[in-house]
Amino acid sequence: MVLALPLGGLYFFRIYENALVQQTELELISQAAALSASYRQSVRILQAEQPLYGRYLPALPPANHSYEPITPTLTLINPVQLPRPEAAAPALPVDKFAQKIGGLMNPIIFDTQHITLAGIRLLDMNGTVIAGREEVGLSLAQIAEVQQAMQGRYASVIRQRLSDEPPPPLYSLSRGTHIRVFVAFPIVENQHLQGVLYLSRTPNNIIKHLFEVQNKILMASGCLLVLLVSATISRPIRELIRQTERVKQGEQQLIEPLKNPVTYEIAQLSDSFASMSHALAERTDYIQRFATHVSHEFKTPLTSMQGALELLQDHLDTMPSEQQHRFIANLLADTQRLKQLVNRLLELARADVS
Length: 354
What we know:
Blueprint: H1 4-49, H2 96-116, E1 119-123, E2 129-131, H3 144-150, E3 155-160, E4 179-189, E5 192-201, H4 206-212, H5 214-248, H6 264-315, H7 321-353
Antiparallel strand pairs: 1-2, 1-5, 3-4, 4-5
């Protein structure tokens, strides 16, 4: 159990950390979906003023909206990619219409980042950054996940995180402090790509997250402790109680030591019960043997006294006086023998008490 507890804790630690990675990806997906909806709405508004501008199609939403959920796919089992490549000069000029939409989206992105602390880049359909706090006007089209999003498919990846400051010593136990989650979300309207949202964030640190939910952890730990106490202490004690009940009812002669006492103290208690049971059994056998011997010693003079008294009762008138005196002497000797037996019993009782 001592070996299993740290191994089980490490296993739980990794599972929980993996859940935080997936939670981070899900949060980025949700943010990207909301920003994508804002982007498409901006396109619709601008197209109403300047229809069919550039490569953007008329924004006519379909009559029936179908749900297309995106589920997190990242796990810590996936290989961690190298840090994100640096932005490069764009191969194509930025689309003017996209630049205008990027200007409209910038305040929305800044407000979103203020709450979510995520890194957000809005790219046009060619992979050039048109909105965000950094790298505006540069291209991210050479990044693998962005290339996949430019083909209309959602992409996510875990990359190494570079930081100028080392994490606190306790936080360094978490793998999440050294990675960053990146998602590339295509903005699609009527089956045509309008742009890409490129978001990133470091997963929540597991130590910090566990501290935030410490009340729940303490409650769960308390429940586990109760179960552990029940398994390690209550079960052996219940087994001892069952054995004593069987001995009391005559179904079992002796209390046997427990096979799995679990703890050293319970093992001592079990051995003490077994020793006490054997001692009581030996004492019972001794008392039985002693009672047998005592009854035999009392029975012999009593039988002799009974025979003499019966003869005296039947033949007192015809029995010679010498024979009468002999029977009376025998009776006195037998009574003296009984008196000596009683005195010895009293002495033995006092010896046992002391």
